[in-house]
Design brief:
Length: 333
């Protein structure tokens, strides 16, 4: 098959279908691709592998004017992409591919800046990448990535989302914005809050970060009141880490921290190793409870990461990190 160099390409919208049309040489006439079939084919590619999604992204970027249309009609694919990453049981592969995937999503965002699915995927992606692979090696870079994740998340919440981080926004208005959020956006709020809390924890010596503690606490409180069971009790883990990781003058409270960590452990039935790590690293160390510390590390070594299929990547990484905590025990106690 050969193509005429002057072949014309255009994207057209009709009331019945979306069509990709090309005018090739007379001897070849491709069939029109219906919108339904296009969505089906893209969905199959994404489910099959993350590489399939990357290929689709490259095609969409090349299409330029058609990108927004396809992304709007295929927004359900993005959660599947995030799910595919979290289910990856090879941390090395995940660490190598996540940056490229995130840059592809940012490229798509250029063509559709207000796409909530894209913004949410970027918020989750940068938060997760920083937590799993960056914070331990380079806290300063991790802080910038967490801030990036937070900002994408605030935008994903809608026009009033960025007001949540505005220091000029009063508590009554923040509460009003949070109450007005659709229940479908609570997941976005939780990931946004997670990135925000981690950014603050890495900048406790910065007045700008300290000034935002009250704002993020209101967001986390709303998450706990709305869905504290999300992702095996993630909001409880975040609250426990906040209370354990800060001095009493900044609202820290070890007793309350333990209650939230125990709730998170209950929701995950001891299978989510992020809880073991944070419980040991922040509460047990701060409380100087060596017996609890050793118990959490021991239990983490016995869990099979793949038993929690939807979070295999997080479990793999934090099982290693929890074991490494024991090797540093003399520095903590």
């Amino acid at each position: 098959m050969t193509w005429n160099k002057t072949a014309r390409k255009r994207c057209s919208i009709t009331s019945r279908s979306w069509q990709w049309r090309m005018e090739p040489e007379p001897h070849f006439s491709p069939k029109n691709i219906s919108k339904r079939r296009l969505k089906k084919e893209i969905r199959l590619l994404v489910i099959k592998s993350v590489k399939g999604f990357m290929l689709v992204c490259l095609i969409l970027i090349a299409l330029n004017g058609c990108t927004r249309l396809v992304m709007r009609s295929s927004s359900s694919l993005l959660p599947r992409f995030s799910q595919a990453v979290l289910e990856e049981c090879d941390p090395v592969l995940a660490e190598q591919t996540m940056p490229a995937n995130l840059k592809l999503l940012e490229g798509l965002l250029k063509s559709d800046p207000q796409n909530p699915a894209l913004l949410h995927s970027l918020s989750m992606g940068f938060c997760g990448y920083s937590l799993l692979f960056v914070e331990e090696k380079d806290p300063q870079r991790a802080a910038q990535l967490y801030l990036r994740a937070r900002n994408y998340g605030l935008r994903a919440l809608g026009k009033k989302g960025p007001l949540l981080a505005d220091l000029q926004t009063g508590e009554p208005e923040i509460r009003s914005i949070l109450i007005s959020l659709d229940k479908k956006k609570i997941e976005i709020l939780i990931w946004t809050t997670a990135a925000w809390i981690n950014w603050i924890n890495l900048n406790l010596d910065q007045p700008e970060a300290l000034a935002q503690i009250s704002n993020v606490e209101l967001c986390l409180k709303h998450c706990l009141e709305t869905d504290d069971t999300y992702l095996y009790g993630l909001p409880n883990l975040l609250k426990g880490a906040m209370l354990a990781g800060r001095p009493a003058l900044l609202g820290g409270d070890l007793q309350k921290s333990k209650v939230y960590f125990e709730k998170a452990m209950t929701f995950s039935q001891g299978r989510f190793l992020l809880v073991h790590y944070y419980f040991a690293r922040y509460y047990a160390v701060q409380a100087q409870d060596q017996d609890l510390f050793l118990d959490l590390v021991q239990k983490a070594t016995l869990v099979k990461p793949e038993n929690l299929e939807d979070l295999c990547l997080i479990n793999k990484v934090f099982q290693r990190k929890t074991i490494e905590l024991k090797e540093k025990m003399d520095d903590y106690f």
